[in-house]
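Progress narrative, Year 2. Work on Aldehyde dehydrogenase from Cicer arietinum advanced from sequence curation to structure prediction during this period.
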Amino acid sequence: MSGEEYSEKKFDTEAASSLVKELRENFSSGKTQSYEWRISQVKALLKMVVEQQDQIIDALRSDLAKPPLETVAYEIGMLKNSCKVTLKELKQWMSPEKVKTSITTFPSSAEIVPEPLGVVLVISAWNYPLLLSLDPVVGAIAAGNVVVLKPSEVAPASSSLLAKLLGKYMDNSSIRVVEGAVDETTALLQQKWDKIFYTGNGKVGRIVMAAAAKHLTPVVLELGGKSPTVVDSNVNLKVTAKRIISGKWGCNNGQACISPDYIITTKDFSPLLVDALKTELENFFGKNPLESNDLSRIVSSNHFHRLIKLMDEDKVSDKIVYGGAKDESKLRIAPTILLDTPRDSLIMSEEIFGPLLPIITVNKLEESFDVINSGTKPLAAYLFTNDNKFKEQFVKKVSAGGLVINDSVLHFVACTLPFGGVGDSGMGAYHGKFSFDAFTHRKAVLYRGFTGDSSLRYPPYTDKKQKCMKALVAGDVPGLVRALFG
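Result:
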């Protein structure tokens, strides 16, 4: 049965159970474990993205009014790169790793053998509906698993397109798409999986983890948090402003888990930073950003009203120093900067995930560490400075999923770096080989022959054997010789 046929039927717990049973049987056949199958499927995915680029751009335009350049750069481009890296490196990733053995197992040899986990579930997010759906799938396929992808129903055009295209391009005996909302996701989570990979918010992440715990299923949770941006006064102000804007409003209009969530800078420097941000925002998006084609819209009415509530709170509304314009009929909110936002305001208590950027001021930049560390660990943290000592302090004192010095969000595009959270911002990581590892069990294998068998390990346990064993465990070769030969 194809992925499209599956989506046409009512998907309940019975259907989910049947699907998992079928996929588990297909995995047991061993087909997906071959290098040839893995490569063929990654190539098929790459071909799909290349051939269907226009459809992908249109779907993301429909769901988010996402500018085509953002789709090409951050979704299509990154996914193509992920496929190409996998095609180049997969044979090496799959190769067993020889490791040393100790004197306690002499004579022996050992290796670590990567093996697929089995039947895995990927639940993706709406803000980057192509990349966050298929990048984990690339890793799951490369590792030799069978996969079920559950795209986000909040991006319906993208979800429908993914179901259609994966049904056409991929091996549907081993790779399936299940569309739907809460009922369908609940039905999927009731099944036993060998790994669940979830991208989204912490509230749903806890539900996913609780469901996985019932089956002792390991999880990767890619969540979010309040990613801080610390700005020193010794920076190139123009470049700093442009890079903050690119990471905030140039990434889906702030609807990205690693967008700068708030800025920390000194009281004296804040007016200069605000002016620089205003200037560059106008250069990028014009005097009326609500009409700009280079800004994504807010994904839904619910998210729109959530953001307006943050912006309209009494203790916050008078802190707006730039922007604040909104158009509910078009679900658009202009880039908005707020200065000296109270720490106890709503906008500082939850991840913003939108085009609002509060600025907190401190007397000394060193106070930023206390501000950041007083909250939960963020998914990302950014620092703009030319002070090498402060850079070292920042890297040492700030715990986050990832750090970037003198830019924002770019660590996400480096496939040699693991991408993932820590604490409340998530667990597990992916990208490049880390995606392969996320869906792989590293199996320990020890090889021995029948020669070199020692009586030390066998009863009766004499005093001599005990002395020898103590020396052996301690790695005391002279002591072992003395014990053996008196």
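Confidence is low (pLDDT under 50) at residues 1-7. The chain has three domains: 3-223+431-441, 228-420, 454-485.
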